[in-house]
Design goal:
42% of the residues lie in helices and 16% in strands. It is of the alpha+beta class. It has a four-stranded mixed β-sheet with strand order 1-2-3-4. About 14% of the residues have low confidence.
Length: 147
């Protein structure tokens, strides 16, 4: 290969590297722009999803049905409990609401936690976390009640 061919080969290699770096930068930048946070009274938990599927597990649907039969909020159509290694459960609520009115959230929060303590043996001795997702799967509230 002559000197001229070697220069062209090096230029092509540099262009490929620049394209890869720009693509990686674009992906990282896009990911950073898509992250979101919420502002609510009380402590905010660590980062988590800001959108979730509107489909719920059958166990979450069944738990919400039991909650509603005991007089719970009918807009809550799924309640999912996830274990936490520290002993503070994560409660994930799915609701038909599309707006994040704080007074409605407080009523739902208190009602769901009270029901779970009384009828489902929920222990909140180490606190709990709660995430509420709206009808389109968007995060409406994130609550951290750990000490």
């Amino acid at each position: 290969m002559n000197r001229h061919g070697l220069v062209i080969s090096e230029l092509r290699s540099n262009v490929r590297i620049r394209v890869r770096v720009r693509t990686a930068s674009l992906i990282v930048g896009s990911a950073l722009l898509l992250t979101a946070c919420t502002e609510h009274e009380g402590a905010v938990s660590e980062a988590g999803p800001t959108v979730t599927s509107t489909a719920a597990a059958p166990t979450a649907l069944a738990l919400a049905e039991r909650y509603q039969r005991e007089g719970g909020d009918e807009s809550v159509y799924a309640i999912q409990q996830e274990a936490d290694p520290e002993g503070a459960p994560l409660l994930i609520l799915r609701t038909t609401q599309s707006e994040s009115e704080n007074s409605l959230f407080e009523k739902q929060r208190d009602s769901v936690v009270s029901y779970l303590r009384e009828f489902e043996q929920l222990s909140t001795a180490k606190g709990y976390r709660m995430e509420v997702f709206g009808r389109d799967g968007s995060l409406l509230h994130r609550w951290d009640a750990r000490p």
